[in-house]
Amino acid sequence: MSTILDVARLAQVSTATVSRVINSPETVRETTRKKVLRAMKMCNYKYNALARGFVTKKSNTIGLIIPNINNPVFAESTLGVQEYANSKNIKVILGNTSYDADQEKSVIKALRESQVDGLIITSTDPKGKLIKTLTEEDVPIVLLFSTVKPGPISAVGVDNYRGGYEATEHLVSLGHRRIGMVAGSFAVTDRSYHRWHGYRQCLKDNGIPYDSKLLIQTEYSLEGGRDSIRELLHLENPPSAVFCSNDYIALGAIKGAREEGLSLPEDLSIVGFDDMPTASYMVPALTTINQPAYEMGRTACEILLQIMEDRTLVMQHMMETKLVVRESTAAVNTARDEKDRQ
Amino acid sequence: MSTILDVARLAQVSTATVSRVINSPETVRETTRKKVLRAMKMCNYKYNALARGFVTKKSNTIGLIIPNINNPVFAESTLGVQEYANSKNIKVILGNTSYDADQEKSVIKALRESQVDGLIITSTDPKGKLIKTLTEEDVPIVLLFSTVKPGPISAVGVDNYRGGYEATEHLVSLGHRRIGMVAGSFAVTDRSYHRWHGYRQCLKDNGIPYDSKLLIQTEYSLEGGRDSIRELLHLENPPSAVFCSNDYIALGAIKGAREEGLSLPEDLSIVGFDDMPTASYMVPALTTINQPAYEMGRTACEILLQIMEDRTLVMQHMMETKLVVRESTAAVNTARDEKDRQ
DNA sequence: TTGTACGCGTTATCAA
DNA sequence: TTGATAACGCGTACAA
Asked: I want to staple A85 with a disulfide (CB 3.0 to 4.6 A). Which of A27, A90, A106, B151 is the partner?
């Protein structure tokens, strides 16, 4: 592999000049530039960004840490991050945590050793200790999807409390009083926790007593959704509607409900959260709380690049959620409720 | 940010010794090792993998190039690549091509400049010119999902022809004679092309005349699947069964068919290809050709690392496909066919 | 077991 | 407009 030194020799100029035709061609006379360009071709010169990074102390690389790339919402936000980064000639290194705080820790360590210029994190550590260390050590970082925390930390997210409230409110407005929730484990992220708070408050505001039996915490997987809804349906007094803390879980829940012989939405209404790309393609098409995942990824990346320029910056960007009513929710089926009680 | 020089000074040893406690601790006496470790803590030393890569000429980084992370199959294979890579302390840089050969080219260029140690590519360039250049320049590379090409190029994939044949055969065995195909554009990848060949041969073997009207090429998206199936259903003599060249397209197709008022599988049978993680959660649960995406990603990465060790290696790994019959296919509904013709 | 000294490919500074 | 050269942080012969 030839270097600028080879090129320099071949073109009979200095390495500095070669470097100039690469980085600021306008500062070198056309004749010499052409000479250099020709020399590059001749020895099949390939630019070494790593060596550049070594001297400029910038790797032009950012780390993106997410819990599970299989969740379509994260795939979508990843795409947003990627496309913006690439448009600015920045590469993104992917880190998967599988919702495990230890993995998150080791991934962050590896990424930092690789000298990434910044980090976008959908954190799995509700306490935020890791994140705090990072900010203390002045690593450019922006939280994605994570609840916007007080204090000097950049983030793009949504109001999860409000989203949970909206989802529940929709169910209440359809006449449901017995409303369950399948929530991703609170131990692993506070997003689901805040959505639950919204759910709970909405019940309260509507005079519906809170029943802790109607809350199931589960892992963030299709299976988790399926198993949880079954548990809910086997309750003595099962819910007529369920709020799932994300669409991925909701997809599992729909499957579980059907396996129990229910028709949706007649027998059971389900609301999700996320509005993942396939939500409108599900059967029944999923009623859910939209959060603009692609835009959020893109924005997070945009903010990160700004912070990398000016480390004193702190930007918190709160996106709007929106209830999207589709086919998975319907007015409560009182006839069936009666029948069940007989 | 402190360096090994700082540590060395603090511990009153040479930089070589510091380097040794990092890379081969067993070669340094315990007392000095402890001294060095303490010094590291004191100045909050952070290892610089970039500098290391610069001297060892290895970045411990590989590039993973896929067409679209939103397709759950690619998300799944990405996870496989990632988890294996991380277990070997290798980072993976993600590149999205959006099924665009130009983007693929520029992504590869950027990745190479970053000195990735190797490349895993699900190529979008059916001619394979780009890939050829890479092998000529001795870049460690393995093709993923791409058809295993003759010649000295490593790859992990499946027999797409055979998979297409199996899918079609299943439909034929259910009594279908009017079988359509919604295929991802042949211009953009040859996977779908080979599946189509299998489809075609199977028709032939069963004495079913090939009707080119029943083939629609479309883009690799949910919308592509939806629009294409509608087109098919509006044919004068519409199909009673459709083979979609991947599950993602099939998901769109199911939606499109329902929008046309059809019940699945009574009115229309659909087979997909991939068996993406959500395939069994769809309604109806998708009959499809399974390819073990996670394993394939993992294996591709495993092979790549081997090639990185020994560049003369060429390994082609063909995985088994398997027909998974679920709910989206059923025996042909002759009654309905009759009715349609009246 | 430890230290010295050089080299990796590039950019940046300063001088010409 | 161009050139000479130091510097970046680390690994590694080779020497001690």
From this structure: A90
A61 φ, ψ to 5°?
-140, 135
Closest chain A residue by Cα to residue B77: A70
Q: Which residue has the higher pLDDT, A132 or B306?
A: B306
A236/B contact by beta carbon, under 8 A: no
CA separation for the pair A35, B262 (Å, rounded): 68
Is the torsion defined by CA of A48, A49, A50, A53 positive or negative? positive
pLDDT, one tens digit per residue, over A270-284 is: 999 999 999 999 999
Q: How far apart, in whole angstroms, are the C-alpha atoms of residue B285 and residue B265?
A: 10
B163 touches chain A (CB under 8 A): no
Q: Do A304 and A118 contact (CB within 8 A), yes or no?
A: yes
Q: Answer whether A293's CB lies under 8 Å from A79's CB.
A: no
pLDDT-derived band of residue B342, with 50, 70 and 90 as boundaries?
Answer: very low
Closest residue to A50, CB basis, from B47, B59, B254: B59
The backbone torsions φ and ψ at residue B242, rounded to the nearest 5 degrees and listed phi first, read: -135, 135
Provide the sign of the torsion angle of the four alpha carbons A281, A178, A160, A121, taken in this order. negative
Do residues A129 and A119 touch, judged by C-beta distance below 8 A? no
Q: How many residues does chain A have?
A: 342
Q: Torsions phi, psi of B61, nearest 5? A: -140, 135
Count other C-beta atoms under 10 Å from residue B332's C-beta.
18
User: Which residue of A49, A93, A113 is in closest CB contact with B47?
Assistant: A113
**Can you name the residues that pair with B272 across neighbouring β-strands?**
B288
Contact A327, A284 (CB under 8 A): yes
SS3 A176: coil
Residue with tokens 């919308």: B223
CA distance A289 to A245: 10
B271 and B288 Cβ atoms separated by less than 8 Å: yes
DSSP count for chain B of H helices, then E strands: 13, 12
Distance B135 CA to D11 C1' (A): 29
CA–CA separation, B114 and B93 (whole Å): 10
User: Is a pLDDT exceeding 60 seen at residue B221?
Assistant: yes
For chain A, report the end-to-end CA distance as a whole number of angstroms: 81
**Coil, strand, or helix at residue A309?**
helix
Residue A341 contacts by C-beta under 8 Å, 6 or more apart in sequence? none
Domains of chain B: 4-47 (1.10.260.40), 57-159+292-320 (3.40.50.2300), 160-291+324-341 (3.40.50.2300)
Say yes or no: B177 contacts chain A, CB-CB below 8 A.
no
Looking at residue A86, its amino acid is N
- Integer-rounded Cα radius of gyration of chain A: 26
Amino acid present at A57 = K
Confidence (pTM)? 0.94
Token pair 């309604």 is found at B283
